[in-house]
Amino acid sequence: MMIKRIHCSLVTRLTLFGLLLILVSAVLRYNILIGFLEKEQAQVAADQQSTIASYLAQDIGYRVQERASYLERLASHFPSALLGDRAAMRSWLQDHQQLLPLFAQGLFVADGNGTIVVDYPPLDGRRALSLTNYPDYERVLQGATVLCPPLNSPASGKPIIAMLTPLRDASGRIVGVLGGSSELNAPGFLDHLQQARLGPTGSFLLVSPQQKMIIASSDEALVLTQLPSAGRDELMDQALAGYRGNGVGIAANGVNEIKAFASVPGTPWLVAVTMPLAAALPTVERTRALIARGGVIQGVMVVLLLVLAYLWFFRPLRRAAALADRMTRGELPLSPLPVERRDEVGHLTMAFNGLLSRLKLHQAELQHQAHHDVLTGLPNRMKLAERMEAALTHACRERNGVALLFLDLDGFKPINDTLGHKAGDLVLQEVTRRLHQVARHGDTLARMGGDEFVLLVTDLGEPYEHGAQVLAEKCIKAVSEPLHLAQGEYRLGVSVGIAVCDGSCDADSLLQAADKAMYAAKGNGRGCYVIAPARASGTGTDLSAPGGTAGTTRPAGSAHS
Ligand SMILES: Nc1nc2c(ncn2[C@@H]2O[C@H](COP(=O)(O)OP(=O)(O)OP(=O)(O)O)[C@@H](O)[C@H]2O)c(=O)[nH]1
């Protein structure tokens, strides 16, 4: 019962409705706001990454260019006379290396055949190496300064990069090669790239598009490794094909990343700055949590507010319902419900009260119809029974008498049959009016059905028969007065049976006695009254006992029309 009540309750429905509203609005807000924030923040992060990539590329370009220029300047100052003298060349290299150690692994000189003949600082395995294996060696012989592809040093085994520039004699003929090599992570070269961090998960890559190789990276493990094969990292593929800028794409490891690319000036390289999308959007994550938290708080608030609103707004309704329940159970009499406020609930209560008053009116009408005759409006047999009980009780208490006059019209049927039922009805109403005039205040005139009436007379003094006789005579006289109907003048009579009692008889016996006496009056020639022979003196006295053919019989004026 309780569960059903909660299930059907307005507050349950309102609460569920409120929660649904919050849920829908939270989902909408979540999608719209998060979508917007993701887009905006990703763009901001991508732009920032582009700036960083561009700065790094410029910086790396500058460092490479600085070394290339230095190497070219050295080459231009190299005394060609030293070429045959290895000790002098080493001394020359030492002086310049110590003066400006831009190449961390030192400087070296190769002869016209491309074989390294001297280096400083001396490195095991470097001398006697042939440069002719380098892909761009031919370009050096044509006069270009070349940035060699990075490789693991055959001498030290560390990732290095070398630069080569031609050495010329006084006539400008290329007679050798001056080179410098540096470890990639040497201080002042690309060490800053390897040490830099972009958040806990971001990374920097220096990429050689030709070799599809990572030259340097903030993740040391990636240095000199190959890029993922084509098709596994769409953005990187685009960058290798020449795209510079930024974007969001799925990396080879399946993570959605923001990537920004910038070309390193003076080199074929490019710098890539990458960061997982989720890590780049901390505000979005916080906003997600905020919306979820806000939704929960809103939900709790709405439930509380709805419960409070229910308690406050519907309190009069609950009171009214409780009162109506008690009225229905019969614990309270039917009465208007209190109207506490002029709101919708008040309106509903007023409407209920209006309905209630109409119901009571209708009930009263039904009650009246159940106890009264429709044609004459007189009390019917049922109502007479009630009045008789009351009259007998009253007579008992007041020690006075009650008389019952049973009246049956004489000659009504011919009028009814000849003039019609409608005229008969008018006659019955006229007879009612006349008998009413005869009856005293407090007496009850009832219609028993057909042309039978009963007059219940109370508060009779001794001898009771006397008062009843007087009334019977008045009734006979009143009924016998001419009836002026549309069809002409007619006359009726009435036969009256009288039964009296001191209040100790029962109502049925009194009625039966009067009825019997009325038949006696009919037998006596109609238009007269007969008093029932026995007079009640105790409960259950049979007033219609044998021997009562006729008590007192008196013709009362003309009885026939
Ligand atoms: N118009 C009309 N007639 C009714 C009504 N109720 C009964 N009657 C008629 O009243 C008549 C009563 O018949 P009786 O009592 O024999 O009439 P009567 O001519 O007075 O005869 P006695 O009583 O023997 O003197 C019948 O014809 C019924 O049809 C009514 O409500 N309206």
UniProtKB/TrEMBL annotation:
<feature type="compositionally biased region" description="Low complexity">
    <location>
        <begin position="544"/>
        <end position="561"/>
    </location>
</feature>
<dbReference type="InterPro" id="IPR043128">
    <property type="entry name" value="Rev_trsase/Diguanyl_cyclase"/>
</dbReference>
<dbReference type="InterPro" id="IPR052163">
    <property type="entry name" value="DGC-Regulatory_Protein"/>
</dbReference>
<keyword id="KW-1133">Transmembrane helix</keyword>
<dbReference type="Pfam" id="PF02743">
    <property type="entry name" value="dCache_1"/>
</dbReference>
<feature type="region of interest" description="Disordered">
    <location>
        <begin position="539"/>
        <end position="561"/>
    </location>
</feature>
<dbReference type="InterPro" id="IPR003660">
    <property type="entry name" value="HAMP_dom"/>
</dbReference>
<dbReference type="InterPro" id="IPR000160">
    <property type="entry name" value="GGDEF_dom"/>
</dbReference>
<protein>
    <submittedName>
        <fullName>Diguanylate cyclase (GGDEF)-like protein</fullName>
    </submittedName>
</protein>
<keyword id="KW-1003">Cell membrane</keyword>
<dbReference type="Pfam" id="PF00990">
    <property type="entry name" value="GGDEF"/>
</dbReference>
<dbReference type="InterPro" id="IPR029151">
    <property type="entry name" value="Sensor-like_sf"/>
</dbReference>
<dbReference type="InterPro" id="IPR033479">
    <property type="entry name" value="dCache_1"/>
</dbReference>
<feature type="domain" description="GGDEF">
    <location>
        <begin position="400"/>
        <end position="534"/>
    </location>
</feature>
<feature type="domain" description="HAMP">
    <location>
        <begin position="311"/>
        <end position="364"/>
    </location>
</feature>
<feature type="transmembrane region" description="Helical">
    <location>
        <begin position="290"/>
        <end position="313"/>
    </location>
</feature>
<keyword id="KW-0812">Transmembrane</keyword>
<dbReference type="InterPro" id="IPR029787">
    <property type="entry name" value="Nucleotide_cyclase"/>
</dbReference>
<keyword id="KW-0472">Membrane</keyword>
<dbReference type="Pfam" id="PF00672">
    <property type="entry name" value="HAMP"/>
</dbReference>
